[in-house]
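Subject: Predicted fold for Flagellar C1a complex subunit C1a-32, 264 residues

User T.R. writes:
Posting the sequence so we have a shared reference for the thread.
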Amino acid sequence: MSGEESKFLLGKFITREHYDYIIANDNWSQIVSPIIPEKYAPESPQALVFAELVNNSIRFCLDQNYSFEKLSTFVGVMLETHARSMVPHTLARTAQKTFNDLMMMHSVHRPPFSIQVFAPSDLAEVTDFFVRGYMRAFKLYLYVFTPRPVLDLVTQNVGIEFPVLKPEPLAKATMEVEPEPEEEPEDEEEAAEEDQTSADQVISDVVDQMAEQGGVDKEKLRVAIKEAMEAEMAKFKAEITAKLQSTLAPAEEPVTKEKGKEHK
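User M.O. replies:
I've generated the structure tokens; pasting them so everyone works from the same file.
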């Protein structure tokens, strides 16, 4: 086979002698065993699954009464697609594209780029077999034939020494209670003076702002504002006192009645 023809899969895995042996015998282990890659140990899961893939491909070709050229090429397409696809994280559509490209390479007579082994009518049945027999279990093939990464975690002492804490014996333990800070009583007179100072400051600020607008007597304005504020405060205190008395009155009535009964 010339260098240009080496890319074609006709006779790569199944030769004419292999084909004659397959036709004459039901047990093909003598033909399949040499095809299994040497990297797979005998009786290993990879070797058994690979042998099953080859057997299923050959059986499909015999059921379709394929000639030597078609059987040899189709087995080659299946195994070549499998070899290119068994890479970690390969997508199913990538394997499908590989199969389609290899089939087209062997279905159109355009040497040296392609040769015609399969007829257009063959493409539908071989594609159906590939989808049902291989793509349906594609993830299982990936699981069997691709290496699985194993993560080993090793702890290493870098020489950092941590102090060992030794708790004190319970016999030496003492209850330490921090005294609560005493609240200093507020002087009512000082609080009243502070409120008055704040009120005077507010009045002064208002008078200054209105005086800036012009034509205002500051002293008269100060007295008027102060009187208005005192009147409002007196009114507010009266309303609060009235509300408190109305709220407490219903609670005191039953007590008054009971006392009256006892007096009688």
